[in-house]
């Protein structure tokens, strides 16, 4: 008799949880669909194949960097140096190619540069012990300054057509940046949900001390995660180089905040340990549709800034309220 | 007309599932030093929290200077002239000593803080407690003993009639303790009553006028110090002869762990012992005696600064990390399951498999089938009650503890260190945990069990090592061990009545 009562309690609780979990991603999906419908009504040129290709191409870089940022946030960190890192890797590749070095090798070296920036972030955070926010804030400025230094502040030109392909080309009718983004999301999905490293990442973000006492090498994981973030930045740097057909040292200033906005909007907790990659994908799409739609509607650029900022606050606010309710 | 400052009558405090205090009486005279004695968990701290207004009793009367207290809050207790120095410090590290001592009662001139007057007042309070550091120093730069003095200065800077001191000497050295006792005598002459809590017998007998003994939340007796000696006091604290269920030892002859002169920073000083297959070595000692630190040293959290140990005849001089400890066959069930044991925001199954995950993966990739097998095996074996997807943070204390044990068992280690395995766990779950330990021992493995519950140690352990101030005071065989002997060793007195430390 008693056991029966307990059983029903358990199942009803289970049902409640499932419903709640579906809710988070469903809400994001509804918001996305709502935005698409809204912009379609407001502007005839929004709901077209051409524009959708455009949107996906525009969000490719955001998505690739956000994939790395998601993992960083999951371990309870943050990486504010991403946009500077993209600019650095992009001009590094540009300088090497225009200096006559083989493009393939130049790209590999550029990737090495981006990953090294991540490694430096990781070393400072884990070994020196400076909080991630301060470390990567410092690196944001250092890396940007370095980018200006090696270019004297001027754009870099003179690449073969093959480089443009990474930014503007098509593969099976899909823009190359979008293909790369899809590959990146797939890899991150496998990492987070199909390997033990993913479990360790979630455990570390949820309770670092418990993770360490469970025999997890928490420092190694942190180093790996920041390196991965840097690696994805260098991939985005390659796309940027192809899209602009030039290495712009002042590219993407302030873009790191768009990335953080997309990730927390996707439901990743800024306190670590909580959040899903599906949510991040939706968050990235919402950001892309929002900024594309606002441009098409001819909304004043300053108002766009107000809207993007508000989106960040709503996202973080929702996270806080949800956490408060749980406790 | 009596000179009673405090009368507590028939105080009962119930928590869901447990009774912390039952019908306790306490009377404090003006200007006396009154010690509250009892084992860990006897209810001393609960009683003091009620007196300090931090918690409300379920039943009973508290009279302060003859007046019945109607409402319980720290503010009201402070207004009644009751000061308390808690065991844990309540200081703000980034403020100076002066700012801490006068926090919330700074003297002002107009809108501005009267720095000079505040410094004078602070200096006076510091002089009184015999502190030699400046009122301008930051609390974060002070040592533990100095912080303790700040706490004491803070409470004597107010007008108090009763001052409660909860283990004030835990962090102090001999010289500082002497100064503290001088201060206590001085306060006593001024008519202030001191309620003193300590585990150290020497101190109790040196400073107290009377002692009230509590046991398992019940009032046992109040005695004048002249009418007591060590033996009588221990007997009152421990009480009944314990009915021991005969434990069958599964200890074999083969030594699995041999610890030789192991030392670690501050807390662990040259400790040696052996552990045999199938054996439970209990570790007893007061809070801060170094029990947990010993576990942390073996498990690679605290560094080994001297000595070594061998496990299965393999000599180890350095344990790099918990990961390394698990690899060489040592597992730990940490004391604080919420902060050190579990990822509360993750589901139970993922918690169980966490430490073993890497071992069972194919390269980097998860082996879901084996993972599920291990999880359900331990869920069943330990009878942990959770539904799929339930978060670890949603379970009861006993079930959470079983999760932590399941985690450690799943790593297949040879030696398990249990740090307070049954704290906050109900009787039923306790018994299940003991059964699990037995199963583990049957497999020829061994257990080190740290516990503050002496009946538990006497029941479970084959031998009991007693620690005091980072040293091993002695190892007792189960058949010779009594609560009295353990308490005596833990208080730093050996079997010949000599002070060890």
Would you give an account of this structure?
The complex is a heterodimer of chains A (327) and B (501). Chain A is mainly alpha-helical and 327 residues long. Chain A contains 13 helices and 2 strands. Chain A has one domain (46-326): ABC transporter involved in vitamin B12 uptake, BtuC. A two-stranded antiparallel ribbon of chain A has the order 1-2. In chain A, helix 4 runs antiparallel to helix 5 (132-151) and helix 7 (176-194) crosses helix 8. Residues 1-22 of chain A have low confidence and may be disordered. Chain B has helices spanning 44-51, 74-79, 97-101, 115-129, 144-156, 174-189, 201-207, 230-238, 291-298, 322-328, 337-341, 348-353, 357-360, 368-381, 397-410, 427-442, 454-460, 483-490; strands spanning 4-15, 18-29, 33-37, 59-64, 67-68, 82-85, 108-109, 112-113, 162-166, 193-197, 210-215, 218-224, 255-264, 268-276, 280-285, 304-311, 314-316, 330-333, 415-419, 446-450, 463-468, 471-477. The longest helix of chain B has 16 residues, at 174-189. Chain B has a 6-stranded mixed beta sheet with strand order 6-9-10-3-11-12, with helices on both faces. A 6-stranded mixed beta sheet of chain B has the order 18-19-20-15-21-22, sandwiched between helices. A 4-stranded antiparallel beta sheet of chain B has the order 2-1-4-5, covered by helices on one side. Chain B folds into 2 domains: 4-238, Rossmann fold; 255-490, Rossmann fold (3-Layer(aba) Sandwich), CATH 3.40.50. Chain B is globular, with a radius of gyration of 25 Å. The A-B interface holds A 10-11, 13-14, 17-18, 194-197, 199-200, 202-203, 206-207, 209-217, 273-274 and B 299, 301, 321-323, 325-327, 332, 334, 339-346, 350, 353-355, 357-358, 361, 364-366, 387-390, 407, 411.
Quickly describe the structure.
The complex is a heterodimer of chains A (327) and B (501). By secondary structure, chain A is mainly alpha-helical.
């Amino acid at each position: 008799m008693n056991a029966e009562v307990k059983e029903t309690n358990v199942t009803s609780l289970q049902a409640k949880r499932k419903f709640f979990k579906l809710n988070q991603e469903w809400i994001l999906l509804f918001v996305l669909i709502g935005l698409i419908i809204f912009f379609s009504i407001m502007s005839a040129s929004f709901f077209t194949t051409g524009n959708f290709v455009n949107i996906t191409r525009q969000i490719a870089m955001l998505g690739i960097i956000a994939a790395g940022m998601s993992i960083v946030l999951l371990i309870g960190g943050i990486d504010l140096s991403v946009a500077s890192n993209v600019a650095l890797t992009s001009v590094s590749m540009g300088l090497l190619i225009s200096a006559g070095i083989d493009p393939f090798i130049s790209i590999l070296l550029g990737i090495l540069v981006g990953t090294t920036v991540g490694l430096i972030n990781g070393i400072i955070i884990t070994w020196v012990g400076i909080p991630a926010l301060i470390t990567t804030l410092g690196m944001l400025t250092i890396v940007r300054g370095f980018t200006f230094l090696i270019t004297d502040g001027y754009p870099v030109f003179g690449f073969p057509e093959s480089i443009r392909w990474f930014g503007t080309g098509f593969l099976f009718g899909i823009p190359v940046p979008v293909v790369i983004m899809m590959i990146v999301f797939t890899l991150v999905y496998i990492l987070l949900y199909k390997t033990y490293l993913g479990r360790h990442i979630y455990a570390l973000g949820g309770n670092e001390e418990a993770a360490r006492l469970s025999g997890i090498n928490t420092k190694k994981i942190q180093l790996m995660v920041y390196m991965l973030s840097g690696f994805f930045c260098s991939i985005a740097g390659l796309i940027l180089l192809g899209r602009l057909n030039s290495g712009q040292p002042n590219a993407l200033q302030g873009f790191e905040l768009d990335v953080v906005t997309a990730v927390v909007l996707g439901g990743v907790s800024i306190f670590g340990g909580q959040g899903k990659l599906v949510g991040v994908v939706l968050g990235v799409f919402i950001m892309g549709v929002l900024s594309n739609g606002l441009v098409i509607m001819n909304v004043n650029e300053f108002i766009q800034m107000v809207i993007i900022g508000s989106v960040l606050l709503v996202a973080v606010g929702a996270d806080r309220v949800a956490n408060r309710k749980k406790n | 007309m009596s000179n009673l400052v405090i009368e507590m009558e028939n105080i009962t405090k119930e928590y869901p599932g447990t009774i912390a205090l039952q019908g306790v009486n306490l009377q404090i005279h003006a200007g006396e030093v009154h010690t509250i004695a009892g084992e860990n968990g006897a209810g001393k701290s609960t009683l003091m929290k009620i007196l300090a207004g931090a918690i409300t009793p379920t039943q009973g009367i508290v009279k302060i200077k003859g007046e019945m207290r109607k409402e319980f809050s720290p503010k009201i207790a402070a207004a009644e002239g009751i000061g308390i120095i808690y065991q844990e410090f309540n200081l703000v590290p980034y403020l100076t000593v002066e700012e801490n001592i006068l926090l919330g009662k700074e003297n002002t001139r107009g809108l501005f803080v009267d720095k000079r007057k505040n410094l004078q007042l602070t200096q006076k309070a510091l002089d009184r407690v015999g502190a030699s550091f400046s009122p301008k120093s930051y609390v974060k730069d002070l040592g533990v003993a100095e912080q303790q003095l700040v706490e004491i200065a803070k409470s004597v800077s107010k007008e108090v009639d009763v001052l409660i001191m909860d283990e004030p000497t835990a962090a102090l050295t001999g010289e500082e303790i002497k100064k503290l006792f001088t201060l206590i005598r001085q306060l006593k002459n001024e008519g202030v009553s001191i309620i003193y809590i300590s585990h150290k017998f020497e101190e109790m007998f040196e400073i107290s006028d009377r002692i009230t003994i509590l046991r398992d939340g019940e009032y046992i007796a109040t005695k004048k110090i002249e009418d007591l000696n060590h033996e009588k006091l221990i007997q009152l604290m421990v009480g009944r002869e314990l009915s021991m269920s005969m434990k069958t030892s599964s200890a074999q002859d083969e030594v699995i762990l041999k610890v030789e002169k192991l030392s670690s920073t501050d807390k662990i000083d040259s400790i040696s012992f052996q552990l045999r297959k199938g054996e439970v070595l209990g570790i007893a000692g007061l809070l801060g005696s170094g029990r947990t630190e010993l576990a942390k040293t073996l498990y690679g959290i605290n560094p080994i600064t001297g000595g070594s140990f061998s496990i299965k005849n393999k000599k180890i001089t350095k344990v790099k990390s918990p990961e390394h400890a698990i690899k060489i066959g040592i597992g730990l069930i940490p004391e604080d399951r919420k902060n050190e044991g579990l990822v509360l925001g993750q589901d139970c199954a993922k918690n169980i498999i966490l430490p073993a995950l890497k071992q069972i993966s194919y390269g980097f990739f998860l082996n879901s089938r084996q993972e599920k097998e291990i999880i359900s095996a331990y869920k069943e074996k330990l009878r942990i009650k959770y539904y799929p997807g339930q978060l670890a943070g949603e379970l009861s204390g006993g079930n959470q503890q079983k999760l932590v044990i399941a985690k450690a068992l799943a790593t297949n280690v040879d030696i398990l260190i249990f740090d307070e395995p049954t704290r906050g766990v109900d009787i039923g779950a306790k018994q299940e945990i003991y059964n699990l330990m037995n199963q583990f021992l049957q497999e020829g493995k061994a257990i080190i069990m740290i516990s503050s519950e002496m009946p538990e140690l006497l029941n479970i352990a084959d031998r009991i090592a007693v620690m005091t101030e980072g040293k091993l005071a002695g190892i007792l065989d189960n058949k010779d061990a009594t609560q009295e002997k353990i308490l005596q060793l833990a208080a730093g007195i050996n079997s010949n009545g000599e002070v060890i430390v």
